[in-house]
Specification:
Elements (H helix, E strand, L loop, with lengths): L13 E7 L5 E8 L19 E9 L2 E10 L7 E10 L9 E7 L5 E6 L3 E10 L12 E5 L22 E6 L1
Amino acid sequence: MRNSADLSIPKGKELTFKVTDANGDDILEKILKVSEFGSLSEKLKLPSSAPLGSYQIYLYDGDSQVGNSGFSVEVFKNPKFKNEVMLKTTGLNGELIKIKSTDVEKTDWGYERKTYTGDFKIQASISSQYYSGSPVKSGEYDYKVYKQYYYDNSYWDDCYYGCYWEPEKEFYTEGK
């Protein structure tokens, strides 16, 4: 925490720390002092009967709210089984895929975007096993497949200050 006017730390300043539960009821209100590093700290132990949902944290300087945050209280459920996905490619014959450029397009930014194609298939097999050791039998799986663009290093040649962009994954297919 810093003063906005001069960025100094308001060491020792007293602020009101307030927490409300998922029902909007106040469950904690306490005066806290700002540390020499500009931080505040408080512990809160919730009873097992605490309502599930979103809790809110508010920070006040007098009547003015100067900060807020939140957290969720949820039921933890141990997983009962684990899944393993194995991928196998066909059509590769232990070689690199013969990829050919099929299209070149100029972007609005002046870059060339090339489209490549290759002929191969990916087969996935899924196995599930209970943590007790026995296999999950007759289980149903929902799956989704996404595709994503790949940019080689030449795309970033003029990025002097560490350009980084992660292309978004695009939905491709799904099934059961």
